[in-house]
Amino acid sequence: MTELNEPLATELASTCFHTAESILARRSEEDFEQLQAVLGADDVDEVVKQNAIMLLGRWERPEVVPALLAQLPEQDERGLINLVDALGRLATPQAVTAVLEQSRHPSPDVRRFAAYALERAGTPPALARLQEMATADDADFVQTRVRDLLTRRDNRQDEK
104 near 93, Cβ under 8 Å? Predict the structure, then answer.
């Protein structure tokens, strides 16, 4: 089994986001390295792996993007949503490309979370895809959410 230090092992096993806040507040290099190790481990609980993905997306260290991208083939719908969120927060060109691909996923829930990630990234290709999704997505609720995101983005731009 992948060895994790305490309190990280306990915190990663929790389903409460409060523990994630503790890890992020600490932002230790040792925790970061162990979170990356969790991604490559086959012997960790799925909750632990999903928490590691979520935390790495919020760590603001884009060097983790290749390790996150390597997780794409292993993810079910719920895992893809978590991974899309993480990649969208890091917003490197590679990450945005992966989110753009997921914005065409068969699941409307994955597409909806991809829209959030694309809006957050805010790159020209991301914004162009959002414009397309606002009128052409197969799911009405995705179109509605994308239009809301674009309106909110426009309002923020007007305030500047």
Answer: no
| pTM beyond cutoff 0.85 | yes
DSSP state of 13: T
pLDDT digits (tens, 9 = 90+) for 64-79: 999 999 999 999 999 9
Cα dihedral across residues 77, 82, 86, 91: positive or negative: positive
CA distance 139 to 146: 11
- pLDDT tens for 90-119 read 999 999 999 999 999 999 999 999 999 999
Q: Are 100 and 129 in contact (CB under 8 A)?
A: yes
Query: What angle (nearest 5°) sits at the alpha carbon of residue 70, between those of residues 66 and 76?
Result: 135
Structure tokens at 95: 């990450």
Query: Is the pLDDT assigned to residue 6 strictly greater than 70?
Result: yes
Q: How far apart are CA 137 and CA 130, in angstroms?
A: 10
Residue 94, CA distances (Å) to 67, 99, 131 in order: 11, 9, 21
Distance CA 35, CA 37 (A): 5
